[in-house]
Design brief:
alpha+beta, Beta-Lactamase, Arc Repressor Mutant, subunit A, five-stranded antiparallel sheet, 17 helices, 46% helix, 20% strand
């Protein structure tokens, strides 16, 4: 499987785990395989610097027992300041490596397992502690390198969103009707539809879009897209998901949208036909969900992650933002005050570095790095 296909499947699994926590061990195993490590875990750190490992993959149960009872208090995650949200750090960045190798944590717990380094990313951070994703490396995988950081940077934003959603939603006690308050906190418009694209539930942001009556409308209770192509995709996906048609795929379909005023949006139609999603849909007879949000770079955190993930120069990142927020080459050329040939040169480099094949793919890429949670 190519890396892009592997990443797409992994991201879909991550969001499934947000709905069913029991899936995390398998998802973490896939994360470890994609990043290139030997073990992984989801951990929390409280105000007393106590580390709790909630889910893990690739660690022997006996070593897990020893970690919980003794060694969690000695590890670099407990004793060092890890970093900012979504920042990826390794052992040499947390503590001098010689000092780490001389400590009990390494000599008595890490080294017997063959571990040599750990990549750690902060998923959530507060005054009382934080949540972390870790991927450990052994002698075969080697020290954390640039390639591992790049792959982990592509996964971390999605694991972070899944952890935030899982924190807000407990599926063991809640069903679709109880999700309304949580779903209304999403800045994305969310539409749950049945097999005939009839609206089963819509959140607050989605209601605003329907009230505008621009690119999405409710006609006779059915969700209708202003663009014929998007409406066709929505109806086909909802119908296919209801019959369990695997051809739709569990990863969903992303489609660019345009409002009458020229604003660009991205719609992601997600079948509720895989694992935990099917159980959510069964509670309210929904077969598909459509997330809709404005396609714009959130320059509070996303640009640094995108730039590092694809090794973009500041100018390439500026052109990427303009492509997403403004549109085609002529419009970007005029807005940035540069020649169209220059824009095309940077666009070609963006395609080469990101693997995108057209401008719509760049919109989807940027939208994937943006958080759907309202601030």
């Amino acid at each position: 499987m190519c890396e892009q296909a592997q990443l797409t499947r992994l991201i879909a699994s991550v969001y499934d785990a947000a709905l069913d926590a029991e899936l995390w061990p398998g998802v973490l195993a896939d994360v470890v395989d994609y990043v290139g490590g030997c073990a992984g875990g989801l951990l929390t750190k409280d105000s007393a610097k106590q580390i709790n490992l909630h889910w893990q993959a690739g660690v022997d149960p006996e070593y897990m027992r020893l970690y919980s009872s003794t060694y969690s208090k000695m590890g670099p995650l407990a004793t060092a300041v890890v970093g900012e949200v979504e920042q990826i750090v390794s052992i040499p960045e947390l503590i001098p490596y010689d000092e780490f190798c001389d400590g009990r944590f390494y000599r008595e717990w890490a080294r017997p397992q063959g571990w040599v380094d750990v990549a750690v990313a902060v998923l959530d951070k507060s005054a009382s502690g934080g949540t972390f994703l870790s991927v450990s490396c052994d002698g075969a995988s080697g020290m954390v390198d640039h390639a591992m950081r790049r792959r982990m940077a592509l996964v971390v934003p999605h694991v972070r969103r899944a952890a935030l959603v899982a924190k807000a939603i407990d599926l063991r006690q809640a069903r679709a009707a109880a999700f309304a308050d949580v779903l209304d906190e999403l800045s994305s418009g969310l539409f749950l539809v049945d097999a005939n694209a009839r609206i089963v539930h819509v959140n607050s942001a989605g209601s605003d879009m329907l009230n505008d009556g621009d690119f999405l409308r409710s006609i006779g209770g059915r969700l209708v897209a202003g663009e014929a192509g998007v409406d066709h995709i929505l109806r086909e996906t909802a119908a296919a998901a209801a019959t369990g048609d695997i051809e739709v795929g569990v990863s969903g379909i992303a489609v660019p949208l345009s409002a009458h005023d020229g604003e660009r949006y991205v719609a992601h139609v997600l079948p509720l036909s895989s694992g935990a999603r099917r159980r959510v849909g069964a509670a309210c007879m929904a077969s598909a969900a459509m997330f809709v949000r404005k396609a714009a770079l959130e320059f509070s955190s996303a640009p640094d992650v995108i730039g590092k993930s694809y090794d973009l120069t500041p100018t390439e990142l500026r052109v990427l933002r303009a492509i997403v927020e403004i549109g085609g080459v002529p419009e970007v050329s005029e807005a940035l005050g540069i020649a169209e040939s220059t824009v095309k040169t940077h666009l070609s480099r963006l395609f080469e570095k990101t693997g995108a094949g057209r401008q719509a793919d760049l919109v989807k890429l940027v939208a994937g790095f943006s958080t759907p949670l309202a601030s």
